[in-house]
Structures are given as C-alpha cells and as structure tokens.
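Supplementary Data S3. Sequence and structure tokens for construct A.
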Amino acid sequence: MTITSDKSSATDTNFLGMPVSGDITQGSSRTEQKPLEELSPLFQALVNDPTIVEFGWSQYTPYFNDGDTCDFSVHYLWVRTTAEADGAVDEYGDEYSSHYGLDVDYHPSLGKIESDWDSEAHKFVNKRYEGPDEDRYNRCQELDRALQSGAYDNVLLEHFGDHALITVRKDVIEVEYYSHD
C-alpha cells in the first residue's frame, strides 16, 4: 500500500552539508524582492514634481496576533501638494497639519477614480478619473502600488526601519517612530 501526502519528502536535501530527512511542509512564499534601483524612477517622479511638496508612508510589523502571522508591510502613500501646504484647509475647515486625509486614492487636489457598482456583475464598472491632472495622479498611484506590493519590503526595512513614518521632501527624508495599534 502506498501512502501519498501533500508534503514533499526530503530525501536528497541537505542543509549545510548535513542530510535532511522527513516530511517538509512548504510554507507560504513571500513576495519576490526587487532592488532599490527599480523603485528609484517611481520615487524620483514624485520628488521632481513641482506641485508635490512632500509625500510619505508608514511601515511596520503589527503588534497583535489574531492567529495570522505578524508580517512587516508598507501602508498607504500620502501626498501633500502645493494646494494643501501653508494654511490650506480641508472640506471641514481644518488645516492640513498632518498626512491624514491625503492618501492618494481619494486625494483633495490630485483627484480620484470614480466608478459605479454593477450589482448583477458584482464588480465596479465605468471607472473614470476626476481631477486636475490624471498623469500626476497615475504617477502617485504607481508608487503607492509599488510600495504596498511587498516587493521592496527588504530595502525599505533596511533603510528606514520598522514602526516608521517616512516623510520625503525635495532635499531630505525624515523618519519618525510610528505608533500604531
């Protein structure tokens, strides 16, 4: 009688020259990492944009354990343009004093993508950009997707650390400790 398993049996495997035997259960694979050089043009496009004053993101490993592993990740990109700088106020009359309310998906001056829900197809349709500069909006979205993809986690963790709020200005990158729940 032959017993099959979803585990791979390690018969030819060795670790540091020592043979490994037994059943090895394959774990989940992390996102393939990319070098910093591939992130550079997306990053530089925002640094060189004359209407973008600063941008940033938070990155951290969650503290809690709800049964899932606590993995390091990057969280949403925020962008401050000249429209939100120096005393500008949001729709509630509050001054833009922090990065809150400036995430790139529904940004007050970069714009947003609107779409309609098709209840029969169970998906969003008729996506359309609303805002002043679709190319700028797309550049910001492209950097956001790259940062949150997990493909640059190793280089971001190495350069900025864990539990960090990163703020990028034209001439400096500031890293602050980021407290999160």
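Construct B, processed identically:
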Amino acid sequence: MIKRILFILVTVSALVLFTQSCTIKLSGASTQGLKTINVEYFENNAPLVVGNLSQNFTEALKDRIRTTTSLSIVQGEADAKLSGTITGYSIAPVSVQATNNNVAPIAGANRLTITVNVTYTNIADKKNNFTQSFPAFADFTGDIANQEQGLIATINKQLTEDIFNKAFANW
C-alpha cells in the first residue's frame, strides 16, 4: 500500500515538474524591427453605407494592434502603414423558408457580409507588403435593425483578426 501511494506521489510530482517546464507560444506575431505603425482611416465606399462602420472598423483594427503588440500607433511617418477602404456591405439570404398558400418563399436566414480592401506597407521589410481584399460575414434571422451593430462588431473582430494575421503572423 505504501509503495502504491509513493508511486502515485512520484508520478504526480514528475507530471507537475514536466508541465511547468514546458511552455507553448502560439501568438506567432512578428513585429521585429517595427516600433510604429500608421493605421489610416478606412473610408466606407460600399454601395450600402452604415454611418459608423468606418469609425468602428478603424478603431477595432487599432485596438487589435494595441492589445497584441507593443507597436505605437502614430499619424504620419511610421515603420509600417495599414490603409484601405470598406468596399462591400451586403445582406443576402442564405436559407429559404417555404410558405403556405402559394406565396413566394421567404428568407429563413440572412448573411451580412463586409469586405475591406487593405494595403499593408512595411518600410523595412518590403517582402511582407500586400494589397488584399478581406471578406467576413455573420448569419442572422429576423430584422437586421435590432442586430446590425452586434453583427458589425462580430464581423469587425473576424476582419481585424484576418488582417492582423496576414500582416504580422508568419503562418
């Protein structure tokens, strides 16, 4: 019985020591050589315009950079620059619901899609520069008016993650 308890204690101790000595870093973000970044205002050029979309998206992108890197966000000259425009804002049905009495079918769910065209310029490391379109979407049911700002926040989170990974994560 004592040997069994001793064996369990030794095993648990070894596991604790092993897990404490192992660390995994998953951020993958590389801002090597960068100290400053200029995140320009992303103007909304989409056919459908939501009044606060440009401001919300630009601030979400800045917040993502602030909370994940040590870069200082500046206006004017910087080591790197993110610029672009919001090029798409659309709502389309993604599922159809049948109706009774020979009435045309209605949308069971809709999809809000926002597309942003982004240019990233790294002054020191030109091989990582890019211009790319980033689409993201969220599905919803019911009237958009009550859900629109929440959907935009969800989509902005997806967009900023994709843009951040393209610019700073070497995956």
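Residues 120 and 126 are 10 Å apart (CA to CA). Helices lie at 2-21, 53-68, 148-168.
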